[in-house]
Batch of 2 targets.
Target 1
Amino acid sequence: MRRYILQRLWQGVILLILVTTIVFFLGRLTGNPADLMLPEDATEEDRQALIETLGLDAPIHEQFIIFISNAVRGDLGDSHRYRTPVVEIFFSRLPNTLMIVPAAMILAILMAVPLGILSALRRGGLIDKFSGTIAVLGIATPNFWLGMVLIYVFSVQLGWLPSARMGGFEHYVLPTITLGTFLVAGFMRLIRSSMLDILDSEFVKLARIKGMSETTVVWKHCLRNALIPVLTLWGVFMGGLVTGAIVTETVFAWPGIGRLTYEAVIFRDYPLLQAVILMDALLILLINLMVDILYAYIDPRIRLAE
Amino acid sequence: MSDDIVLDVHDLHTHFFLRRGVVKAVDGVSFSLRRGEVLGLVGESGCGKSVTALSLLRLLPKGAARTVQGEIELEGEDILKTSDREMRQIRGRKIAMILQDPQTSLNPVFSIGNQLRETIAKHFPGPGGTVTQRAIEALRNVRLAAPEQRMDQYPHQLSGGMKQRVVGAIAISCEPLVMIADEPTTALDVTIQLQYLNLLKELQEASNMAILFITHDFGVVAKMCDHVAVMYAGRIVERGPVRQVFDNPTHPYTQALIASVPKMGDQRGRLHTIEGQPPEFSDLPVGCRFAPRCAFVEDKCLSTYPTDFSVGNGHTSACWKLEKPE
Amino acid sequence: MRNLPWIPLTIISVMLFMGIFAPFLTSYSPIDQSLPDKLLPPFWEEGGSIKHLFGTDIFGRDVLTRLYHGARVSLIVTALALLVGGGVGLVIGIVSGYVGGRLDSLLMRIVDAALAFPTILFALLLAVTMGQGLRTIVIAISLLLWARFARVVRGEVLAVKERDYVALAKVHGCSPARIMATHILPNVLNTFMVLLTLHVGVVIVAEASLSFLGAGIPPPTPSWGLMVAEGRGKISSAWWLSLIPGVAITLVVLAFNLFGDWLRDRLDPKLRQL
């Protein structure tokens, strides 16, 4: 277990170094990064000052060292648009994202697990057909469009729910559903297919032979095993979750990290974008590590591996 | 004597309902098991022996298969007529079963102790300590070293042979009347097959439970069983005390099966094989089902299914060549 | 013939037709503005006319015309991204699987890393550093694709390379490059085709998402994702601006996914876990 976690941690560190390097070199890909780092109205003095602080006239490997040592000290530069350190902006927005992402994940689990299991148990039945349709539609519908449809139906037409920005409970409903749908569809399909395999397995047969009730067979013997593929394929979902968060926060003008990413793109705020990506990478690695630990907890073959 | 009968199966028919038609996988099978008796059910794969076993537990694949006719009397009560709830009290408690492949029979995410204790807790509810004691006792009975430590281990930490012992421990933990062993040694290493068979025999003698031993291997039958029933294409074609059937097989299929067992000291070095394939269940011959592969086939075999003819001492055989001229 | 997925195939054909013949299907320009005609609703709404079946946008451009040209953009991006991303993945998968050893474990580590990190972030970064455009978006989406292709193709190669004719070719002194090209490649093409169809939907959604976020093909060139984004602020007064192109995206992605599932079941059922 310890070795497994350490190995995962090590892989995470390598990935972080890789991301940092790529971000650094992409910034220098198209000429002088000073032009990317400075707002359009910057003066020649600003430019010279920046070239000095970042060592832009030094050889590239020295620039890289400066970049890394600044980053480690939590200095990733100032945003063009907000004229404040990007790291500060990131942390002021982070809590807002942390309010909808877990909610979306909980929604996904609460919907996908029972539906995935029920459709596997009654294969070809009404629930299976219904959730199969939901899954196919959910995967084909881009988050941003789903968000707009929900706004159109529930805010514009029915007037039940607010269409944008933060506020009371009702403000959370549409963003959570929008973000959760992608996960629901993916989880559901995966849980269904792994449940079908597991229901066919010998250990389920043996559990029934032992006289276990169907409830025990499904919720004890099957569920844990069915969750394993969801955790092993977590990386794929993570990609969708990040895209979903950016798009959903953009659609609902939700002042979180996703919306910040979008602003950095449309205002061409390179220091901000660079910082958001590096901080996101760090965050994603932490979440991946938590998923790995959960995986090890669920699967003793990982937990007890020497 | 008949009071001793714990399981009496009479005229069992189990059909599979598939898109391409009805498959009569078990087509009129009858047998009985006495207390402490080991009955071997022998036949090629696909002859219906495993389906028979699952029919006894009423664990056929839902929707696809159903027992359409017959009685399964356990201690005089027809279990085909009991409720699902009562059936769950019987499974694991009165009838236990060992599956073929120990690598997949145990749930990989729960400890040995967990899987053993849940069985005991289901059938003998009691304080945790008692259940655990009973579980450890069961592991000790299957000769697993350091049973206390095994309780906390997971299936992937045990070898195939040890896992099959755990499956055995689960089976005997509730002192069943009948144990069904479905090819329990087929997936084991050759070196430990014999050990496992000896263990089963020992457990059976100690507890006096009856065993329905399903196998395709006549050598194993000779070692383990008191009686044997040979199954072909959904029906029992020959049955009787093991020694008699082994020494004097009368059905051509049994003869072929026995001839295909390698014998020690047999210098000819060639194994007998049976020509042809078992019939498709969807396209069964009208007469004797073995007729298309039989060396002694006659006109009558092709038109009418033979009745059981007695060869003496409870040894019967369904073959027309045993018919005595009137 | 009866078992062909007719509905998805019809939708795909319509989209291909729209994309290929876009300029001949309409007399309007997808780009030129016509402010007097702005924000006309679709023909079935009050104030709409059959001159603009799906209405017009804030600059008075015909929505249907932009939809046709948007299909063309989607097709070009999809074709190029699959060619580049899928091609790179195919080559890496074959080399990694066939050569094996250190190279294989190194390449697979990189694949793992690429799969564990959301590519959208790099795509956005590329759009800012390289500037928006076809080249940027093709590279960005290829980054998303190559690792998935490489992983699956490699698995397939591992199975193929154990076969007798590969060993025979080796004995006959064929060079590794030749064996990979003449013996391995043809055997993974089925898998590759299935992967391609299964990823058309992924690419279309990715392109639309990037365009929606202002990191795709730059305006005024119409792209479905961009059209949805442009209609975002007008959702309460001019719903057709964003909802109609959204329907187009969903229908097309749905059609390609269903077609891909069908093809996979026919050619390579073991890929079902994807």
Target 2
Amino acid sequence: MDKLLRKKSNIILFLAPAFVIFSAVLIVPIITAFYYSLCDYKLNSAPTFVGLKNYITIFTDDPDMKIAFKNSIFFMIFSIISQLFFGLILAALLTNIKRGRDFFKNVYYLPCVLSSAALGLLWYFVFHPKYGVNKIMENLGMLENANEGTLWLSDTSGFIILPIIVISFVALWQYVGQSMMLYMAQISGISKDIYEAAAIDGCSRTQAFFRITLPLIKPMMATAMSLNAIGSLKFFDLIFSMIPEAMRGKGGKANVIATVIYDQGLRFNKYGYACAVGMVLLLMCLIVTFLINKFVKVESYE
Amino acid sequence: MKVDFDDSMVEKNKGQRQAVKIAIYVLLSFLVLVYIVPLLWIVMSAMKPNSQFKSAPWSLPTGMEFGNFIFAWTKGHLGNAMFNSFVVSTCTLLISLAVGSMAAFAIAKLRWKMSKLALTYFMIGMMIPIHCVLFSLYTQFARWGLTNSLLGLIIPYVAFSLPITIYIMAGFFESIPNELFEAAVIDGCSVPKLFFTVGLPLAKTGFMVTGLMSFVNNWNELLFAMVFISDDERKTLPVSLTKFVGPHSTNYTQMFAGIVIAVIPTIIVYCIFANQIVEGLTAGAVKG
């Protein structure tokens, strides 16, 4: 029996297809992308090695990247904090009720499975200066005329421009269900005995939440926060579908890292540069994940 | 549990608890509105003629009109795009399930020294943002003539679905007791037969969960689909939708119909399989 399950030929037979596809389409391209990032590589020309030139341009000489870093890091911080806060509140509320729990849970989770592109377009119309929320404000008498209302998605004043803030709220709306679900899974795994013992000792429900629930779900907090961080650094679909083209291309104020990659690669065919930006993104994801896991996942209690 | 309270305290607590409960339900119901109203608004507006939408965008539609949907489906190429998305997502699902579950079986049930290492190797894929490989893969596929074809989209999608598929399926195989396999081996079962007759039937839930997840993810994928496919005929649903809906046109209600067409299939799938999808996505994230 043992011999059969140890037979090399069987192992190779079962593992090979996945190994080949995965390596050829993900691992090898990562390595070539790293090489291209050190090259001057444009359409119709072979890559020529230029060392760190692309990286130096990214950090010192590209105004688009400066804006992209600013916006992406804002997205990341906003999404980590807001999702942690609202995700925890929703999870705590839902684990405390019985009736309708699945219904609420499924409704809040719904946007996570829908296409961000389609939802972005939907919200684009909700924030349309003429027909969306501005029209509601006009109907309610808060605005004289919808046309004079706030330009939600094209205002460009301020350090963090309004469209970026609007989109971060839309992203919160779309993805908070994910965080909620992770926390709920963890909370419902905590033994009821602990809460009963605490109640006997005179612990109120609020106290129980802060003293028992929070410490016990800390490992999950690290997981959820890293997921949010990576997700928001990669952010592309919502920006692409909600922001007018002029604001997310070259010189646009609403650029994020992913839109720069798209723009440099597809519009200007500067593949080497696009790969370098991709490498920076990968590095940022790894650093943030590392930091979160180092500082949040202090110890596991169970 | 039994705790001694005097009667008045119990009464007071009961009333308070009731009030808190009502407050919670009010809050949760309000949030449901925040989630449902934007979706309903789009559906309602899609049934209006454009002129009616422009004069009163937030009013109820006066009748049911399907002209907008027909326009978006045919002239907006969304029908065609949906077919492409269906082909791509289904092929990806079948291939990644087949290939992924085999690898997961090898990792979880076959006995070799490096199985843990192999799992870690595949898990690297979960940490890599696909943006990093976008253009190195694109230039490679362009050389091979794989860009602008659905196959060129299916291959990377399979690769991106593999880590999560392998992770979840390995978990399911792991949970099957070894005795079942041992019994089959004593009966003279070969390893491939073991996989098909013992492993697969017992990991049915795993298939369901990973399959739905990979389907939903690939159905919604935008960036790769946009870069890899330039031919209108072969574009997938999210790409055609972003092309059809945009500032170029002022016929809003037709665009709304387009958005509705794009989200309806996922909503239907979600309504049927909500619990499995939720379970799968959570299981995938909890790799701890």
